[in-house]
Design brief:
Chain lengths: 130, 766
């Protein structure tokens, strides 16, 4: 089932809220680890990359994962250099950024996807196109 | 049957020459067993219509193509329990792999061959095969090992733990603290996941990083491959030739991922190629190829088929008028001819609005900042690649490498100042090509026959890959295709060896950074057929194409243009399977050639973790050799002084005796430390004796000497790992500090790790 672009910010917001609950309630590792992995790999990046309106979903996903890791590395490095290291603060910053990105996506929704913008001879993911 | 039959007596050549029918019989038996499911899969595919030149979108058809991958997965999983990682022969782990493992690889390779034959449109089928390949080649060891691979992984775990404990870094300690980006990320992940140390997940790094590489690699290959098959084959080849093992829990692995991301973004959206790849542009381009009137695209005859490589796209109206490639000069010199061919050969960039481009530039700037703050070498590799693209006008914004260079200098003069101004050796190697090359190619150890053979295999394998890439590039150029971007990016890392030897690892890093583009060039040497473009007057007359390319048609316009994917003869299946298996075996040989020392003993990790946790601060940790022990693996490693007693570069056939013991006791007094610890392990013994550093049996004799000593006491023993301690009565035991320090210690100069080197090396040379 192909995910509608308009659903992405709501899903990411839900994941962020779920992650916050998991942390606050000190959920057991069996729940915390998969939820946190999902958040760390996807949420911060997928809050912003869809704003680029890339028609290739596979490329969008790839850049979303990359941006997630980049934002985490950047915030962590800044905190380490400033000697204000705190994982809780770091996660709060990331969560806030994620919610801001999702809000921007909701405020500026993407136009309905046009078939002619999709690469030919692929399934719309973009991967494998030449 | 076991391939160990091929590698007995530590000599591959002798073993191959002694190869009996045992291995062949085993292989034949395996094929017989596998023939049944393969035949069933073939029959099912035939019945579902795979003989059509264009693959069906039928779900049943797709399901038939996953039968073999699932079989490969099952065989691989079945083989895991029988892989013995405790007794690895000198030739490497290939000596311990059962035939089932190779059968799994063979089945997967055959299945990939079927994909090449049938060329399905669904990306997930190709991704499934690539994912399984990554799992089998890069995921086997993390599954089998209890602890992370490579002894030097533990230094990175220690730095990550340091940040967790001290809430900061200390630039005076070592280079890692001057480029802390990756370690800070590791610390964040560790605590966010609720773990105490990155040791709990570091062993999965190789599998995770290789899965991460897949996305940007496909994005890069999409801009270079002349067909969809070339894209997937290049990715397939990459994971089978990426043997340098720079993908473990380390800044290099993370930054290589970021390098791929930057290149992917640049090639796709910030490429200077004026051709824009949209469906409409291609349709008009195809029409103009055959139309007598270039402005009227309605006179194409149905059924015409043209090759992708001959498409001449109509120039973009926004093209820079000074672009020499598009000028219709009657006499073009070689440069213009080359550039024109390169432009025609390159896959067009993706259309991007100004807003999208600015957003992507912002993305790149963030990436640059993370790269600059987390690794020393990757920025230079990236600068080299981007500069090469900019010089040959393949980069829309030539200031990008300049910006990256500025960030490198800024970081080096600010946050990494204590290292760049205090460590002078990196200046001395600038421009020293011969010296740097020698440091990368010389063998300092007298290795066993098996490892000498393995080292030779590695060199042959590397030259084979590079040779194949050169052949592929030449083949393409003979066909009139100039894969300029792939060639530039493949060659760009090589001059970096002029800067530094990087501790003898620069050639490995060059191989790593050039490999994505080398594998794309290799596809030029393979008999892959280009995608073909056909025309049909209307949708109804080409129903078999309708389902294949559902997003291409504009039913209201005429003529319709269809891309028909490449098809190959049935021979591609056995050829692909055989070549894949050969390359995969070569990968395993090179990837695990030194696995005997790359594998870390879990008892060593356990004992050393306890040592670092319980030893008083300021203790002296004496190591006979620091290369293959998981040292500095906790966040308080900076509290201890580490000394190495044996010089593995100079010492040969030495005999450790009472004099050495006395020397170690003297070292404790000289260093004014409260306690000295000496670590023994079987891996150290094997390393010393097999490389003729110690006399045979000397390691155990020396250990027995300590056991009989009245001053040394046995503190920890687990398996074959022992730690002896010597107390210095003149120095009182310090008070254990608070493990959590809100304010990290003040900056101190870097402590020399081996002060007052003992006279061991001089004695050893006599």
């Amino acid at each position: 089932m192909r995910l509608n672009r308009h659903q992405i910010p709501y899903l990411v917001t839900a994941l962020t809220i779920l992650t916050a609950l998991v942390v606050m309630l000190e959920a057991p590792a069996a729940i915390r680890i998969p939820v946190m992995l999902g958040f760390l790999f996807l949420a911060p990046g997928m809050a912003f990359v869809p704003l680029l309106r890339l028609p290739q979903r596979g490329y969008e996903f790839t850049l979303g994962v990359a941006l997630s890791l980049l934002l985490e590395a950047l915030t962590a490095t800044v905190m380490v250099e400033l000697r204000v290291w705190s994982v809780e603060l770091n996660l709060e910053i990331l969560g806030s950024l994620t919610l801001i990105g999702c809000a921007l996506q909701i405020y500026w929704p993407a136009a309905p996807e046009e078939p002619e913008n999709l690469e030919p001879d692929t399934d719309g993911l973009g991967w494998g196109a030449s | 049957m076991n391939p160990t039959d091929l590698i007995s007596n530590d000599s591959v050549l002798r073993a191959i020459s002694n190869a009996t029918g045992g291995f062949l019989a085993g292989a034949a038996l395996t094929m017989l067993v596998l023939a049944i499911p393969i035949a069933v899969s073939l029959f099912a595919s035939y019945r579902l219509g795979w003989q059509q030149s264009v693959s069906s979108q039928s779900a049943r058809f797709d399901l038939s193509l996953i039968a073999l991958p699932l079989l490969a997965l099952g065989l691989w999983a079945w083989s895991l329990p029988s892989i013995d990682t405790r007794t690895i022969p000198d030739i490497g782990l290939i000596g311990s792999l059962p035939l089932l493992f190779f059968a799994a690889l063979m089945v997967l390779a055959i299945s990939f061959g079927f994909l090449m034959l049938l060329n399905p449109a669904k990306s997930w089928l190709w991704l499934l095969h690539l994912g399984l390949l990554i799992l089998i080649l890069h995921g086997t060891l993390p599954i089998l090992y209890d602890v992370p691979r490579f002894p030097w992984t533990y230094k990175h775990i220690g730095v990550t733990s340091y940040i967790q404990i001290h809430n900061g870094i200390n630039q005076g300690l070592d280079a890692y603290h001057n480029w802390p980006g990756f370690f800070a990320l590791g610390a964040l992940w560790t605590e966010a996941l609720g773990m105490k140390s990155s040791l709990e997940f570091a062993k999965w790094a190789q599998l995770v990083f290789n899965l991460l590489y897949l996305g940007p690699l496909l994005m890069i290959y999409g801009t270079m491959g002349r067909s969809r098959q070339a894209v997937w084959v290049a990715a397939w080849l990459f994971f089978m030739t990426s043997w340098v093992s720079q993908d473990y829990f380390a800044p290099q692995a993370f930054n290589f991922y970021l390098f791929l991301i930057v290149v992917a973004v640049v090639l796709n959206w910030l490429n200077h190629n004026p051709q824009v790849r949209t469906r409409k542009a291609r349709a008009v381009a195809v029409a103009s190829e055959f139309s007598s009137d270039e402005t009227n695209a309605t006179t194409i005859s149905s059924g015409d088929t043209i090759s992708v490589s001959s498409i001449q796209t109509i120039p973009d109206s926004s093209l820079n008028s000074n672009e020499p490639v598009m000028q219709s000069e009657p006499r073009l010199n070689w440069y213009f001819r080359l550039m024109r061919r390169a432009v025609q050969s390159d896959q067009a960039g993706l259309e991007a609005s100004p807003g999208q481009r600015y957003g992507l530039i912002g993305f790149l700037i963030v990436t640059f900042m993370v790269i600059v703050s987390s690794h020393q070498l990757t920025p230079f590799m990236l600068i080299a690649g981007l500069t090469a693209l900019a010089f040959w006008r393949r980069l829309r914004y030539p200031w990008l490498p300049v910006l990256l260079g500025v960030l490198v200098v800024a970081w080096g003069l600010s946050f990494a100042k204590s290292y760049t101004t205090g460590q002078s050796q990196w200046y001395s190697s600038l421009g020293q090509f011969v010296q740097n090359l020698q440091e990368n190619t010389s063998e300092t150890l007298e290795e066993s026959q098996g490892r000498v053979t393995a080292s030779l295999l590695i060199k042959v394998y590397v030259l084979f890959i590079w040779g194949l890439a050169a052949l592929g590039g030449i083949q393409q150029m003979r066909r009139g295709i100039v894969p300029l971007r792939a060639m530039l990016l493949a060659v760009a890392p090589f001059p970096i060896i002029l800067l530094n030897s990087y501790g003898g690892e620069m050639l490995l890093r060059i191989y790593f950074f050039s490999l994505p583009f080398m594998t794309m060039l290799i596809t030029g040497a393979l008999p892959l057929r280009d995608d073909a473009i056909s025309t049909a007057p209307n949708l109804e007359s080409a129903p078999e194409f309708a389902n294949a390319v559902p997003n291409l048609f504009e039913p209201s316009s005429s003529p319709a243009v269809v891309v028909r994917r490449a098809t190959n003869s049935w021979r591609v299946v056995p050829i692909t399977a055989t070549l894949s298996l050969v390359v995969a075996i070569g990968f395993i040989c090179t990837y695990t050639a030194k696995e005997k020392f790359f594998r870390v003993n879990p008892e060593e990790v356990s004992v050393l973790s306890e040592l670092y946790a319980k030893a008083p601060p300021e203790s002296l940790i004496m190591l006979l050799n620091d290369q293959f022990l998981p040292i500095r693996l906790t966040g308080n490693y900076e509290q201890f002084l580490h000394l190495t007693w044996v010089n593995t570069t100079l010492d040969r056939n030495i005999e450790l005796n009472k004099d050495d013991l006395n020397g170690m006791e003297l070292e404790l007094k000289k260093s004014n430390r409260p306690i000295e610890y000496l670590v023994f392990s079987a891996s150290q013994r094997d390393f010393f004796e097999e490389n003729n550093i110690l006399n045979p049996g000397n390691y155990d004799r020396f250990r027995a000497l300590l056991a009989r000593s009245k001053t040394w006491t046995l503190e920890w023993r687990r398996g074959d790992v022992e730690v002896y301690a010597l107390r210095n009565p003149d120095v009182p035991l310090p008070v254990q500090p608070d493990p959590v320090q809100p304010n990290p210690p003040a900056q101190t100069p870097a402590k020399p790790l081996e002060p007052n080197r003992p006279e061991r090396s001089l004695v050893g040379l006599k």
